Amino acid sequence: GPRNFFQRRFAIPIERYGDTTSLQTLRSLAQPFILRRLKSDRDIIQDLPEKQEMTVFCGLSAEQAALYQQIVDKSLADIDAAEGIQRRGIILALLTKLKQLCDHPTLIKEDKTSDVSFESRSGKLQRLEEMLEEAVAEGDRALIFTQFAEWGKLLKAHLEQRLGRETLFLYGGTSKKQREEMIDRFQQDPQGPRIFILSLKAGGVGLNLTRANHVFHFDRWWNPAVENQATDRVFRIGQTRNVQVHKFVCTGTLEERIHEMIESKKALAEQVIGAGENWLTELDTNQLRNLLLLDRSAVIEE
Predict the structure, then answer these.
(1) What is the CATH number of the domain that holds 191?
(2) Global pTM exceeds 0.85
(3) Would you say 234 and 205 are in contact if contact means Cβ atoms under 8 Å apart?
């Protein structure tokens, strides 16, 4: 039926009021079309260990915060003046740019030089380094997912230099032969690389990487189904250790607000599979402004 009927009949009663009758009705209507085998269902899979999902909140560097504010101010004026497809295009481009900025300023700046160290320019990168050092010291192995191949290349070089360890990187441009060699070394070689960076599109499905017991989502897809598929490279039959999933979020930015929106809608998302990020383009300019507003208290003190 029409979307507003669905909102009125199911979404609002379930999300806002926890209406179990509406939830049961929705389940019975959807059941013939959905077969879900959950890894959390112990009747189906009894030999899987535990999976712990954690949100890792990171601050912004002063450089990131200044750029964030500039980009938002300029883009909101452009969005206000545009409509239709053009408006949606500007919003999607803005979301991508802000995500890249939350990863590292070098992804969006023309001038790549800086007086400060590479890691101190990004709150997320500082936190990732700390967590990886700890994991590797414990003898663990880690996957790091990013949507941006350019960031994957930079991160590989940086981690190799900082941690003094070979780091693998698989993305769309990796040949089939290289891909198989990387997976084999990561999975089979006891002395092999312990850190494996994957672009979400190239490495998010179809791979078996159960030697890892840490999964880092460095930037977010804002679609739980896509992230869960990526996590399942590790959390699948053959995994013998508990798996820790770390989802990185920049506090005081759109990342934190969208994360909160997704978490609050999980009750409904259990029934209805997410539709990518396009839902964000339907927000009006005031809603967008509230979403994008920078909370200055989240900036890391220099």
Answers:
(1) 3.40.50.300
(2) no
(3) no
